[in-house]
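Lab channel / #folding
Pinned by the channel admin:
"Please post every new chain as: sequence first, then the structure tokens as a reply. Keep commentary short and put observations after the output so the thread stays searchable."

First post following the new format, from NK:
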Amino acid sequence: MNSLLSAGLIFLLGFLGARLLKYVRLPNVTAFLIVGIVIGPHVLNLVTQ
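Reply from TO:
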């Protein structure tokens, strides 16, 4: 996957995850960690490096 596309995907999903977790009153960094684990190479393999 193109590195620019990967960076955009990370930012977009991180932002959306942070917005969703605001309703549960969890900090933004929790959403960033969850999104990083889910789209990383060990679960969905959307971002390889």
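NK: The radius of gyration is 11 Å.
TO: also worth noting, Residues 3-39 form one domain.
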